[in-house]
Amino acid sequence: MELQRRAKGLFSCLFHDFSEVLNLQSDMVENMIVTRELREMLPSPLSTVKHLNLRLVTFSIHLVIAKLVDGLLWIAPHTKTVSIEYGDLDKASFKFSFSYKKQVIYDGKTANCCKSFPISCWQHCIEKVELEINHEYYRRGKNTKMYILKGADFMEQIDAVCSTF
After folding, report:
1. Domain coordinates of the chain in residue numbers?
2. Which residues have C-beta within 8 Å of that of residue 88, sequence separation ≥ 6?
């Protein structure tokens, strides 16, 4: 029942598969983390979205940023950018720019996770992630940091970088 409620809530905001930009807003970061059970039940819904923007009301997302990015990439696989913004007076934003390689073939075969979907899963196709983190402090200025993440463990790298904020 809980899984059905979350699926319905998540996909009520995803309407047409023709837009290149999708803007989402959520009060709770948990609403944007897509569970493994849901991923196994449904294919990724938006394969044509190029830019995915999320505005959160929550302040403590740095603890789950990799899970959040993972969920957003499932919603829109092969998107060019994912932007996450939160805060009012003290604002923070994370902008991820993705570079992709062609779908990986293992021993002459397509990876198991890619076989049943028309769009290959992003997990085997990301070559490089450029990450820009901005913190704008009320009356104290702005701080920007840039990172380039490469390799299969880029999600762990995202966790390591974002845990310092």
Report:
1. 2-162
2. none
